[in-house]
Amino acid sequence: MGRRDDDEDREKLSWREIDQMRDRSRHVSREPKSYRERSLKSEWAKKQHLKEAEKYFLGKKGTESYKKAYAALHDKYGTPGFDEAARKFIQEFGPPDDWGTLILLLDAKDPAVVKAVLPPIREIYGKRNPIEQKGLKGKLKILV
């Protein structure tokens, strides 16, 4: 076989480089992946990232202080400290998003708390089942 003219132009590989090429798989890249790429592949890491994103979009409602105030509100239901807890909760975080807590807040003696809770209840009312709607009507009749 004769020599080709373009053989002289290209750089010759050393035996070490040739061995390294043989050891590597030709169809899989061995480039080291960044921390973010590796962490996104981990299922646990995905869940953590999603949890952090949810906290970010929830604003104040994703904080630990919200969780504590929410738990305190439910714990103090039926006690003399409920009205104060309800007032504090509404002042700091506004009305909650869940139906159960909104209904719970209707039992507060402070009219400002009840007024703050009525608009979100009105928005959610149509999405609730007939039994929950009937329960709300009964509770409102008692309030009036």
**Number of β-strand runs:** 0
Query: What proportion of the residues is helical, as a percent range?
Result: 55-70%
Identify low-pLDDT runs: none
Strand residues, percent? under 5%
Gross morphology is: rod-shaped
Q: Averaging pLDDT over every residue, what do you get? A: 82
Class derived from helix and strand content: mainly alpha
N- and C-termini, Cα separation: 105 Å
The arrangement of helices and strands along the chain is HHHHHHHH
User: In angstroms, what is the radius of gyration?
Assistant: 32 Å
| Biggest sheet character | none
Helix run count: 8
Written account of the structure:
The protein has 144 residues and is mainly alpha-helical. It has a domain at 55-143. Helix content is 64%, strand content 0%. It contains eight helices and no strands. It has helices at 15-23, 35-41, 43-58, 64-75, 82-93, 99-105, 111-125, 130-143. Helix 6 (99-105) runs antiparallel to helix 7 (111-125). The termini are far apart. The model has no long low-confidence stretch (mean pLDDT 82).
